[in-house]
């Protein structure tokens, strides 16, 4: 075997590609991870860093989420990935949302996934600044975690290089993958060639470098989200992830609750509806608060039409809604950014074979930080059975 031959080559070092690399390397395979940029800079580092299976439908996706929590915690026990197990709290703002929290808690109890109904007073005690005028009560998921998205992926890659023998090559844009003579030939834009028994392509929202025709006729859409960060807050602690009533209306897990249809859409601010806004909070390790987000959509082939601009009007509405929920020590926004992820209209992920021994795995939507570790484990077991 020449030194440029691998058991597995993975294209794209976002959370999906990196966790596939992790499980392949853990299996003892010789793995090469190729990233086009100097480091991953897309959805995987621009998100909240919430791993919250509680927001997913019961079944395969919540199972992958729960398994991912175990994987994050296992790695964290030997190498700092920035994982904090501080739980997530959904806050109800009206009686129907509160009923949904009770119903979701009952569903989770049956599945053996721990959650705690938390009364209004306890919520107000646990979360300083939470407004009594907003909070009717909450549902807390103690097992859920947060990570620092601007650190986690770099730490995971470093861990794999140091301890699992991963070969990682940034500045490596894969421009073609061809199967011939029983192996996959992977060529980068600067003319390097590598070969592997199997290739996985976890290309995120890049639909032009590889297989553009395949993606152009797919049902993939790209979603643009707006996010903000405050300056660090000293003497203010907001543990874990906090999600407001609009998330109860948005997350798929609540659609399984018997009272879901009773939610009254008329009570939602029209501007929140227009921009797909729900409000989530997470305090980063430096004390700053990450607040978001909104949702705008375009088909994959027209994704550039989403634009690169941060729309102030959207951030103003997010902040308005956020201020209904919390009375923070300050609202000094120091950073605003857009994140983009791919998802499908008709399915929950894009997993297809592009050629013999070549798989594309992308368009995981807004759940990638929550489920990728578990999904990748199942995929690697199947692909390298
Ligand atoms: C604002 C925002 C908030 C979010 N919050 C959460 C959250 O709290 N919890 C959660 O579970 N999920 C969240 N998500 C979703 C999550 O971030 C995504 O599902 C996940 O990061 C997608 O990972 P990925 O690896 O598929 O894509 P990406 O992160 O886009 O990674 C793909 C990588 O592939 C590389 N690449 C592409 N093509 C090539 C090529 N040809 N050659 C070499 N390299 C290539 C790219 O450079 C990129 O680094 C959020 C997303 C956003 C945008």
Key attributes of the depicted protein:
single chain, 385 residues, alpha+beta, FAD/NAD(P)-binding domain, D-Amino Acid Oxidase, Chain A, domain 2, 11 helices, binds flavin-adenine dinucleotide
Description of the molecule:
This protein has 385 residues and is of the alpha+beta class. The protein folds into 2 domains: 1-85 and 146-219 and 347-385, FAD/NAD(P)-binding domain, CATH 3.50.50; 88-142 and 220-345, 2-Layer Sandwich (D-Amino Acid Oxidase, Chain A, domain 2). The protein is built from 11 helices and 19 strands. It has helices spanning 15-26, 43-46, 60-78, 95-111, 120-126, 149-163, 212-216, 245-250, 270-274, 312-325, 368-383, and strands spanning 5-11, 31-34, 50-51, 88-92, 116-118, 137-141, 145-146, 167-169, 174-180, 183-188, 193-201, 220-230, 241-243, 280-283, 289-292, 296-299, 333-344, 350-355, 358-362. Strands 4, 5, 6, 12, 13, 14, 15, 16 and 17 form a 9-stranded mixed beta sheet that branches. Strands 1, 2, 8, 9, 10, 11, 18 and 19 form an 8-stranded mixed beta sheet that branches. Helix 1 (15-26) runs parallel beside helix 11 (368-383) and helix 3 (60-78) packs across helix 11 (368-383). The longest helix has 19 residues, at 60-78. It is globular. The two termini are 21 Å apart. The model has no long low-confidence stretch (mean pLDDT 97). The structure holds flavin-adenine dinucleotide (FAD). Flavin-adenine dinucleotide is lined by residues 11-17, 34-37, 40, 42-44, 46-50, 172-174, 202-206, 209-210, 225, 227, 292-293, 339-341, 362, 364-370.
